[in-house]
Amino acid sequence: MIKKNRHRLKNSSKTVRLHPKTRMLIAKTVVRALKDMNNQQPEVPGSLPQISGIMEHKQIRILMVSSMTGESLWQAEQMIAEQFRLLVKELVAIKAFQSFSSALNQLNPDLLLVVGNAEPFSDSDLEVIRKAASKKAIWLADGPFTSESTARMAALFDYVFTQNTLHIPFYQHSGCKQVYYLPFAADRSLYSPGPVKEEYRSDLLLLGDARAAGKEYAEKIKHVFNIKKTAAAGTGWEEYPGLQVLPEGAELQDYYNGAELIIHWGGPPGRALDIAACGAFQLAEAHPNIYQHMNPGEDIITFHTADELLEKLHHYTSHVDAKRAVASRALWKSTYDYSFLQMADKLIYTVFHR
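The structure corresponding to this sequence follows.
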């Protein structure tokens, strides 16, 4: 795992020497990046495209209508708008509670992009969306759950982007013809490598409920709780002595940075991307969301059963270099493969060039 402590370097004539395996990893990463720049990668059917040339987007004008609520989603809204402005000719961003029919008529955008969910929109708003002549897309903030009202609204759009692959059949059944999985990227102002206080440090960080399906995972690895400093976030952990149970709603970014190894299951869809942005090593329960933007075995390690979890926990606990390599690739890819800039570009490419 990436070393979390940072030390300020003073001017010195000393040479900083990297470990040979670290140098090899950096070299392979650079070579792969250069190859990707010079060779067009084949597209996997049904998947979103890789990032395309920015210049071809510079004639596009977007009206972005946001229905995001809550502090964390408000920050995501700001980052989405900032990245689109880097890619297109013009982006006008307004809130959903404003009357956007006049803005739609004045701007006459190439794309009407709604970001968020259905709740704030009135019947008159929905009628404006239905009649809009421009291309229409909605980037839903649907997370682990969705609703009939969200599906009805999504059916008004030419393109639907969801946070959860498991929602795709539901939206298609509701009349949405083009539905894609496109998660919000990690907020790098919150999730990035950094030093933490001792209170946030652990050998093992568990994220998920120790009830229902998670009970089997907890029982299989409980023997390590008294050997390693272990913290856990979720319900049902009180019955396991020796654990540091985190308070409900605790901000987790410092715990990510303080953990030597993170295991998680059943959490919000974007959790794996947040952990990757901290440069932390993670063992994650296999889920369809993981496979489009991450590469199990390369930047994340997955498990399907409790036995497999235990086997991989023991393996990566004793193979520190392998664990560090996975975490390093996750941090690199969170910057260059699945940041908000790449996600915004994939949305534009899907709407205008597929």
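Confidence is low (pLDDT under 50) at residues 1-18, 37-46.
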